[in-house]
From TrEMBL:
This protein's UniProt keywords: Signal
Region (Disordered): 27-65
Protein name from the UniProt record: Substrate-binding domain-containing protein
Record-stated family: Belongs to the leucine-binding protein family.
PANTHER family assigned to the protein according to its UniProt record, in alphabetical order: LEUCINE-SPECIFIC-BINDING PROTEIN, PERIPLASMIC BINDING PROTEIN OF ABC TRANSPORTER FOR NATURAL AMINO ACIDS
Domain Leucine-binding protein stretches: 69-409
Start-end of Low complexity biased regions: 27-36, 45-58
Pfam families linked to this entry: Peripla_BP_6
Signal peptide extent: 1-24
Length: 436
């Protein structure tokens, strides 16, 4: 295989990650930085739909009378995705501070945030979403970390006619086959990652390149591989093996061995969570066997484990050093002030973007939280974020957004490999196909 082909193809990368938050079996209600914890209550299975709907309306009316807008947050607060939740939680709260100039109010109403742990279990996600809507009377839901959790909740949002801002779940089907009009997404989707990769390698790619993929065995992994496969095959590559691993596994030996046996030219990895396969890939000498690894740029904690693939060309969803705009400047500076010098991480800007979108929409509606009114307001709405201008595409409510073509390098001042900008790809460059 020629050198140009190898260099170009390694840009096809997706390291798709997702979202979580802050407590186990408890619910935390936060009113702009102040929190209290209350006991979790399960939904009464004997209530009829009309009774639960009336309860939801009653709770919402009570909040309205008190001049409060309630935002419900669904997240994996425990388990391997927990780190992403902390990032998104910080971004969401900072986003409300930024968008309201520190008042925590919009249209004269106080913003209150209520958090629920989905435990990365779709059935629990459904229970918690129902609780937020019925017992808490939330006006809008943000979430969730897991694509599986998010997909399970989508029909509930349509039933209750309430808007959900999806952040940071990435499965294409969320704004595709399973979409309904109450669903908007500030997170990028799997196809945007794949389209970014295809844009990055646009050029003369010859046929016959053999690729294997490794991904977690749930919606996030399957959608990521599907989107990548479409982009790769359009360039003449052949995906010879799709290897899916248990997302809770700690031993990937059998998965990696099957990849070695298939003898591809490239291994494309889609992964999320703390228990990544990279250490075992290094231990089993995958690269030394002649297989070139391709993956996206993860969060800072995971970047420490990518020393072995320095020089890789790929893309990034976010690194604090990549965007150049006033919103990102505020986020970086303020995050360091609040969190002992720490930089915002991979999903911090996503949480901030969701909050900004909510506040701007509520300003336009003068605080009206009616689902249909918000849908009309959000459709086609553009707003400024740490990644630049985002726009909710009217057809599927997917946020068009900037992505980054990068190389992974050692940089002075950092003790981990850093994504260095090659090219900023515009929202138009990375617009995914409409699939709903």
């Amino acid at each position: 295989m020629n050198v140009k082909l190898k260099m170009m193809f390694s840009i096809l990368t997706v390291f798709l990650l997702v979202f979580s938050m802050a407590c186990g079996s408890t619910t935390t209600s936060t009113e702009q930085g102040q929190s209290d914890t209350e006991s979790d209550e399960s939904t009464n299975a004997e209530e009829t739909p009309s009774e639960t709907s009336e309860q939801s309306e009653s709770a919402a009316e009570e909040s309205e009378e008190k001049g409060v807008i309630k935002i419900g947050v669904l997240a994996s607060l425990t388990g391997p995705l927990e780190v992403y939740g902390n990032q998104t939680l910080r971004g969401l709260e900072m986003g409300f501070d930024y968008a309201t100039n520190g008042t925590g109010e919009v249209a004269g109403k106080k913003i209150e945030i209520v958090y629920e742990d989905t435990e990365t279990k779709p059935d629990i996600a459904v229970q918690k979403a129902t609780r937020l809507l019925e017992d808490e009377g939330v006006d809008i839901i943000v979430g969730s970390t897991s694509s599986g959790d998010t997909l399970a909740v989508l029909p509930i949002m349509e039933e209750y006619e309430k808007v959900m801002i999806v952040e940071p779940a990435v499965a294409d089907s969320i704004t595709g086959a399973n979409w309904n009009k109450y669903i908007f997404r500030t997170a990028r989707n799997s196809s945007q990652d794949a389209v970014t990769a295809a844009q990055a390698i646009a050029g003369d790619v010859s046929e016959g390149v053999k690729v294997a993929t490794l991904a977690p065995d749930y919606a996030f992994g399957h959608d990521g591989v599907s989107a990548f496969k479409t982009a790769a095959e359009s360039l003449g590559a052949e995906v010879i093996l799709e290897e899916y691993a248990d997302p809770t596994a700690v031993d990937f030996t059998s998965n990696i061995q099957r990849i070695l046996d298939a003898d591809p030219d490239y291994l494309f990895i889609v992964w999320a969570g703390a228990n990544t396969p990279f250490n075992q890939i290094a231990d089993m000498k995958v690269q030394e066997s002649g297989i070139q690894i391709s993956t996206g740029v993860p969060d800072i904690g995971a970047l420490y484990g990518l020393e072995s693939i320095i020089g890789m060309k790929g893309f990034a969803v976010y690194h604090h050093s990549l965007p150049s705009n006033e919103v990102n400047d505020w986020l970086v500076e303020e995050h360091q002030k609040r969190f002992d010098g720490e930089y915002p991480d991979l999903f911090t800007p996503g949480g901030m973007s969701a909050a900004i979108a909510i506040v701007e929409a509520l300003e336009k509606t003068n605080g009206d939280t009616n689902g249909d009114v918000l849908v009309e307001t959000l459709e086609g709405m553009s707003f400024e974020t740490p990644k630049g201008t985002m726009t909710f595409r009217a057809e599927d409510h997917q946020a068009m957004q900037t992505m980054y073509s990068v190389s992974l390098e050692k940089v002075d001042g950092y003790d981990y490999p850093v994504p260095v900008l090659i090219k900023e790809l515009s929202p138009e460059d990375t617009a995914p196909p409409i699939k709903n």
